[in-house]
Amino acid sequence: xxxxxxxxxxxxxxxxxxxxxxxxxxxxxxxxxxxxxxxxxxxxxxxxxxxxxxxxxxxxxxxxxxxxxxxxxxxxxxxxxxxxxxxxxxxxxx
Length: 94
Hints:
By secondary structure, the chain is of the alpha+beta class. The protein has helices spanning 3-21, 57-93, and strands at residues 30-34, 39-46, 49-54. The chain has one domain. 60% of the residues lie in helices and 20% in strands. Strands 1-2-3 form a three-stranded antiparallel β-sheet, with helices on one face. β1 (30-34) and β2 (39-46) form a beta hairpin. α1 packs antiparallel against α2 (57-93). It is elongated.
């Protein structure tokens, strides 16, 4: 890997860090629709227990946004991990 590639990877890391900083609130879990009445809930599995909270239309939109932010955060972390692994490998090879 040449120095140009290393610089490109480091710039990408800075971009990802800025994106992560601007995400806003995050929640791990899912928005689900349950029952005959097709009611919307936020579902979280914590300590082997599923926890549900009812969501009206307004709170549903907020919960979806927070859940989507969490998924975006995970994608950023995955990409940063791969970049950092490659950078570490490069520093070891030198």
